[in-house]
Amino acid sequence: MEIREAIPTDAARIHDIAITSWMDTYEEIYSVNSKTHFVKEAYPQEEVARAIRTAEEARGEYFNVAIIEEEIVGFIHAIDVEGTWEIVRLYVLPKYQQNGIGRKLIRELEHQGASPIEVYVESRNYKARQFLVSFGFKEESETTEEIFGQVEPVTRLKRIYE
C-alpha cells in the first residue's frame, strides 16, 4: 500500500469513495431523504478538487490518499484549527476496511507533523467510534448537529499521546 498526497485529478475517485463508504456506513442511521440529499449535494468533484488544491498550497492542511495496486481505496483530509488537527474526512472503501488502511492514513498525518488530532463522528457510527478508540482516541464530548436535514448526536474524539 502506498500513501501519497492527493492531486486534483483524484477528485472523481475520492468523490466515489466518499459516496460508497458513506452510504454503507450510514444506511441504518439516516433517513431516505437525508441520504438522497447527501448523494446529491455532498462531495461534489469541484469541491474535492478545490480542497486538494488548498491542501497542496497550505501548510495547515493535509489531503492524502491510500493506494493499493494503483487504485485509490481510501483518503484522509485534515485541517489545522488553532493548533489542533481536525480530521474532516476519513473514508476507506468497505471491502478494504479492517486492513489497517485508516490507521496508516492517520499515522501518515502524524508523521507529517499533525498533532494533536481530533475528529467529530456521528455518535451512532459505532464502527468508526470503536476504530478511533482502539487507535488511542478518547471520547471528549457530545453535541448535536443538523446533518442533511436530520438532527444527530455527534461525538468529539481526540488522539491521546503518551
Please, could you describe this protein's structure?
GO terms for molecular function: acyltransferase activity, transferring groups other than amino-acyl groups. By secondary structure, the chain is an alpha+beta fold. It has one domain: 3-Layer(aba) Sandwich (Aminopeptidase). 36% of the residues lie in helices and 36% in strands. The chain is built from 5 helices and 7 strands, in the order βαααβββαβαββ. Strands 1-2-3-4-5-7-6 form a 7-stranded mixed β-sheet, with helices on both faces. Helix 1 packs across helix 3. The model has no long low-confidence stretch (mean pLDDT 89).
Please give the number of β-strands. 7
CATH superfamily: Gcn5-related N-acetyltransferase (GNAT)
| Overall domain count | 1
At the first level of CATH, what is the class?
Answer: Alpha Beta
Topology, element by element:
Elements: E1 2-5, H1 11-25, H2 32-41, H3 45-57, E2 61-68, E3 71-81, E4 84-92, H4 101-111, E5 117-122, H5 126-134, E6 137-147, E7 150-159
Helix pairs in contact: 1-3
